[in-house]
Specification:
Blueprint lengths: L2 E6 L4 H12 L6 E7 L3 E7 L2 H17 L13 E7 L14 E2 L5 E9 L2 H10 L11 H11 L10 H14 L4 E9 L6 E6 L4 E4 L4 E4 L11 E4 L4 E5 L4 E5 L8 E4 L15 H7 L1 H9 L13 E2 L3 H5 L3 E6 L1 H18 L3 E5 H4 L10 E7 L5 H12 L3 E6 L5 H4 L3 E4 L12 H20 L5 H23 L2 H10 L4 E6 L3 H16 L2 E6 L16 E5 L7 H16 L3 E7 L11 E5 L8 H18 L18
Parallel strand pairs: 16-17, 16-18, 18-19, 19-20, 21-22, 21-23, 23-24, 24-25
Antiparallel strand pairs: 1-4, 1-10, 2-3, 2-4, 5-6, 6-7, 7-8, 8-12, 9-10, 9-11, 11-14, 12-13, 15-20
Bound molecules: 5-amino-5-deoxy-1-O-phosphono-D-mannitol.
Amino acid sequence: MCGIVGYAGARPALGVVINGLRRLEYRGYDSAGIAVVDGGLLMEKRAGKLASLEKALAERLAEASANPRPAAGNIASGSTGIGHTRWATHGGPTDRNAHPHRSADGRIAVIHNGIIENFAKLRSDLEGRGVTFLSDTDTECVAHLISAELANVDVESPESPVGARLGEAMRRVCLRLEGAFTLLAVDADAPGVVVGARRNSPLVVGRGRDENFLASDVSAFIEYTREATELGQDQVVTITDDGVTIMDFLGNPADGKEFHIDWDSNAAEKGGYDYFMLKEIAEQPRAIADTLLGRLTETGEVMLDEVRLSDQDLRDVDKIFVVACGTAYHSGLVAKYAIEHWTRIPCEVELASEFRYRDPVLDRSTLVVAISQSGETMDTLMALRHAKEQKARVLAICNTSGSTIPRESDAVLYTRGGPEIAVASTKAFLTQLVACYLVGLHLAQVRGIKYADEVGAVVAQLQEMSGKVDQVLDLMEPVRRLARELADAKSVLFIGRHVGYPVALEGALKLKELAYMHAEGFAAGELKHGPIALIDQGTPVVCVVPSPRGRGVLRDKIISNIQEVRARGARTVVIAEDGDEDVRSYADHLIAVPVTPTLLAPLVTTVPLQVLAAEIATARGHDVDQPRNLAKSVTVE
Ligand code: M6R
């Protein structure tokens, strides 16, 4: 939540920071703001999406060129700057609560992602000392505290004495803060310096030539540099055009972990699509193929990316918990079927936000699989930390290098989806499914339950899935037409069994978040225990039907469920395997997907539901990429 960008170099900071914010806007879009150091602190901030800030800046620049004032600094030319796009926590989404926040003396500007939990006490102390607050945010107190602390700091540094002072002031202030935060600050008296700090919230450094960057994630600066440094927990970083200095909160010199970004910079552009989401749906075949690329060794073993666990540790696992949120949780629900089927280890799937509060039974023979696209979801991170405190082993499935969840895990398997900008997860979901299958196969192999040739056979089936998703995408025109017909429905229900049940949940989540419609997913057998009362004449019910070649009982049961809803007036949208003629008579609308092994079917059955939700949202006039009230990366609990 909240996107943060900082720049120190030779280019005008305004352009670099606005470009970065554009790429981070998916993290929050309640308001946006920028501060540039150029002969003083120059700020502009606005409630609403980034476009409102850009409009205000354009007006300001037009006014400045019409009435030039040579002595004043210029927001368009200063080469040190910070910018922020907000998902509101403390204080509504207004101009005055937009970041940056300035210290009372006008010297320091601060932007923040996270929540400072002791801000009320800090604020009342500051007010007691006569400071007047201009916003309702928790962030503003940090600007006042840094400004006050600067008076006490005396740091000698031949390269950048003022920058060192700002870094030291930031460090001392961080020691007084509780909660989760990424902070960036600039000082009107220290042009060329940006200081950052992080605890629990994300911050990465981009290392360029004669310029350096700070950002919530690498997509903000990939058009300028591919070299990045991952900061550790509780670290302060100072960037100038030619240096990056890191220390921990105790003042000891520290190192970050350097890494190369292999994302294509065009991947963060819309590439001719109206929305990122449509582009990301279309990228799914490639994302699946990339996630599978080179996963098998010459001897047929499945490889993870980073493993700080021995094979013996994995052989000792007697229980698995998958923890995740939202769409990632749905991928975990599918994983349960595959992992239990292939490994025979009991596997529970739990919402990360609930996990640690019920005191789960964990020990060193428990494996916790944490799934997260962003690698920063606070609920998942806290579940992971709880698991580690209880000595459980943690394996992360993640899309974002340099993020916190993989860094704190014992083993990592990266999905190679590339940047996912649309708030609604699409390619993240499919690549998480692929990664879950690989984890299941790896565990089965290490434990001697599956031989290399058996694993190879499933991986070969997985490799075919990329082409099958392509086939689904080629057949989406009827789904688009159907979407226009369903756009006025009051409510849409989704039903499925076995791996079709998580698909139903995911279809409903997509529709809720994009179309703002009542939508619910049910295990089809559960319907008659209550939810069937929701069905009225014409209520659309989307039914995910398993393959006729799979487990016959399962299929017969869902066909009965479809008949039950039809008997009560439902309008059925049936997703079934190509050539499954028997279901045709139960379907008001039939969406055919390619023939696929049962466990892998979610890779194809989910895709029409993504398209359906995006198209209904478009028909209802909603912003598909940035649905109301949401943020892509949820870094608060
Ligand atoms: O970054 P994560 O995968 O940890 O995010 C988890 C959820 O917030 C995320 O999947 C969310 O549910 C999606 N926006 C849904 O489309």
